[in-house]
Amino acid sequence: MNAPTATVVSFVRHAHSPYVPDAERARGLSEQGRRAAARVTTHLGPVADVVVTSPYERAKATVEGVADVAEVPLIVDEDLRERELAGNHVEDFDGAVEHLWANPTDSYPGGESHVEAQARGVAAIERLLDAYPGRHVVVGTHGTLLALILNEFDPRYGYEFWSGLSMPDVYEATFLDGNLLGVVRTWVPEDERRAETDTVAETDDA
After folding, report:
1. Cα gap 116→136, rounded to integer Å
2. What is the distance between the alpha carbons of residues 202 and 206, in angstroms, rounded to a whole number?
3. What is the pTM of this model?
4. Position 1 in a domain
5. Which H helix or E strand runs over 51?
6. Is residue 184 situated within a structural domain?
7. 20 to 30 A Cα–Cα from 189, which one of 93, 165, 167, 168?
8. CA–CA dist 106, 110 (Å, integer)
9. DSSP characters for 157-186?
10. What is the pLDDT of residue 203?
11. Does residue 2 form part of some domain?
12. Which residue, 84, 80, 82, 85, is CA-closest to 51?
């Protein structure tokens, strides 16, 4: 009998997108975000077996190139959308988010609690693990939902992890029999790449 094979899920937090009030689903990427999305394509296109995304335009635009290179369909899953903070614009966004991380069953009018968003996000990932065992699945999603999904499996992924995410960001999670074996960040933001290049250049000149 063959041993079970691990499934790899690369969670992709979308690239930079200009904030537009009341346009959560439709707002796309900035020019900076489009350049970064091209790097995501180079990074994940050669290894992706399946590409699934949030329905929000900024998430789709970040991973659609991956699907093109991998020659697979771009699958849209409504449950991978971002946690809905509130029905209307929230003035103190950072304070509201910090409050929800500290009080995961709370919600603002018209919004979701972290418990609610986490439940649908985890259910979406469990469906993918069942459907694509042993495959490399790329998931285009959002910062809060990404953190909430990982938090379900490991409580170390919380507010501080969320606040440290870049746009875009990529975390590779390995699952076996529905259990999380480990998570590795595989993305190097542009500013860190430049810093590494500068360090190498200084070393070469020394």
Report:
1. 27
2. 6
3. 0.91
4. no
5. strand 50-53
6. yes
7. 93
8. 12
9. SSHHHHHT--SSEEEEEEEETTEEEEEEE-
10. 52
11. no
12. 80
Tell me the HSE value of 162 on the side-chain side, using a 13 A CA sphere.
Answer: 22
Which tokens sit at 3?
Answer: 């041993």
Tokens 């991380």, residue?
Answer: 101
Confidence at residue 197, expressed as pLDDT on a 0 to 100 scale = 52
Q: Is 53 helix (H, G, I), strand (E, B) or coil?
A: strand
User: Which residues form the domain of 121?
Assistant: 7-205
Q: Is 194 among the domain residues?
A: yes
| Prior bond of 168 cis (ω within 30°) | yes
Angle between helices 57-70 and 31-44 (to 10 degrees): 40
Number of domains within the chain: 1
Q: Are the C-beta atoms of 23 and 57 separated by less than 8 Å?
A: no
Within its chain, how far is the Cα of 92 from the centroid? 23
Residues of the chain with pLDDT under 70: 1-3, 193-206
Q: Which two tokens stand for residue 156?
A: 């170390």
Q: Of 34, 37, 56, which is closest to residue 45 (Cα–Cα)?
A: 37
Contact 86, 111 (CB under 8 A): yes
Tell me the CATH number at 189: 3.40.50.1240
Q: Of the candidates 142, 149, 82, 143, which has an alpha carbon nearest to the alpha carbon of residue 111? A: 82
Distance CA 188, CA 117 (A): 27
Retrieve residue 119's tokens: 């439940």
Which pair of tokens denotes residue 89?
A: 């614009």
Q: How far is CA 50 from the centre of its chain?
A: 15
Nearest to 183 by CA among 167, 203, 202, 165: 165
Look at residue 101 in the predicted model and tell me its pLDDT: 97
